[in-house]
Amino acid sequence: MMKRHFYIQKNKTLFKSLIHPSSSHNLPPSFYFFLSRNKFNCGSSNIVITSNIKNNFNRGYYYSSSSSTPSQYLNKVGHGLDETKIVIPKEIEIEEDDRNRVFNEGKINKITTGTTYSIFSGYDEAKDRQVFYGCGDNRDAQLIIGNGKIQALDNIELLESPTLKSDEIKGKQLKQLVSGTYHNACILNDNTSNNNNNTSNNNHNNNNNSNNNNNNNNNNNNNNNNNNNNNKSPLILLWGASNSGQIGSPEYNRVQFDPYNNKVLSEIGIKKLSMGATFTMALSNNCKLYSFGSSTFNELGNGDNFNEREPKLIDNQLLRDNQIIDVECGFFHTVALTSDNKILTWGRNQESQCFPVTDGTGRGSFTNVQYLDTTLLGDSKIIQIGASNLNTYILDENGNIYSIGSNDHGQCGVEKSSFKKGVLNKVKIGNEDLKVKKFYSRFKTVIVETTNGRFFGWGSNFDHQLALETRCIYFTPVELNNLNNLHKDYNIIDISISLSHCISLNSNFQK
Question: Given 24, 423, 449, 486, which is the most exposed site by the fewest CB atoms within 10 A?
C-alpha cells in the first residue's frame, strides 16, 4: 500500500505520532494505529495519534515506544523507513472505509489498553449498537477476532463476533470499558442518549471513577429494580485470557474470543469492574464486592488460595460490614474505598503496597483484607483511588496525592532518600506544590492533571510513556510539556497507560 502523509481537514481525520529515535516503521493508512514493545513480540515504536474533527466529536492521541528488536511485525508505524526521530507530533493519513465510520466521524468515546494491545469503542448510530476496534497482540483473544488464527493486528480493525453483532446489544451503550493484562470487559446499559463522555477505566483502564462513585453513593440501589427485566439489565461482556476463571464463565476455556455474556453479574447489578493480572473485581449497585479468577495471593479476598470460575460475593467480614463505593486492582492486589472514607486492601503485599512488611522470601505474599493506614490524610475526603502493578494511590479533596508500594521504578513519586516503605508518601507536584485534579496510574507509570490544567508524571519512561524524549526513570514528578500542549489544543479527557504505550482521548471542546 502506498505510503503517504497529509493533513485531513473538515470532517476527516488527523493523526499525530511520536516515535522513538531508533524507530523505523511503515504503517499503511489506517485509523488509530500504534506499536509498542511486546505488542507483537516486536521492537520499537513510539507514536501519538489524534483525530481532528471540526465538529463536536472526540479525538484521541496515542503514543508508545520500545527498544528496537527484530521482528516480523516491525515497520508498521506509517512514517516510512527514512524517519529516525519524531518528537513533535506529526500527522498520519488514515484510510477512509465504511467499517471505520465511527472512527472517521470522531465518535470514539471509550479507550482501554492491556499489556500489549489497545481497544477503542464508539456508538454506531446507523447500526444502533456499540462497536469496538483494536490493534496489537491477539494471542490470548484480547482482540476478539480470528478464533486463534490471527495472532496480532498490525492495523486498527473493527472487532466483530456473533455476540457483538447480535440484537442483544442493540440500543445499549457503553458505560465502562476496562482491561486487565490480557482480559477485558465492558458494561453496556440502556440509554436514550449517546454517551460521548468517556468514563475512565482504568484503567486498568480505567482508574478515575471515584468521583462518580462518591457522587452516586446515595443512588446505589437505583438499578436493582431493573435486574428482573432482561431488556433493562446491564449487559456485561468479558473476553480474552480465561485460564484462571477471570471472565467468570463456569466452563473452562484457556481463552475466550466471542465475548462471554456474564448473566450472573447482570442479575446482580454491577456498576463497575476492575481487573488485575488474572482476576476480576465487580462492584454491585448495593455497594458489595464480587470476585472471580486466580487467588494465588488472596487476590479474591476470601482468605484462601482457591480460584473461582464464577462471580462470588467476597467472604470477608470487613467487606460485609462496609459499603464499598470504589475499587481498583493492581497486578495482584486490590484497593477498595468505603463510604466512610476508609481504604481496604488485600492480596499480594511483597512490595508493601498494602501495609509495612519486612524483607524476606515470601513475606507479604498473602494478605487478608485489612485497613490501610491513612493517618497522613487527616480528615480529608478521598476522591479517587488507583493502583498500578505494585502500588496504591490516593487523591484527597485538597488535591494531595499519596503513594505506597514499590519505588524501584520511581512509581511512588519521591526520591530514594525520602521514600518510606510500607506507609503513604505524599507526592509533591512541581516547585509550587500544585494540586491534583485527577490521576492515571498503571504498570510503572503515573500521570496527573493539576487543577490548573498542567500535566506531570513519574515512574518509568523507558518506552516514552510520559511523552518525554529521555528514556529513564523519573523518581519525582516532571512536567509533561508535550501533554500540556496537547491539552491546550485538544482537551484531554482520558488517558490509558499500558506497559510501553499510552492513549489519551481528547475532546473537540474549545477552551
Answer: 423
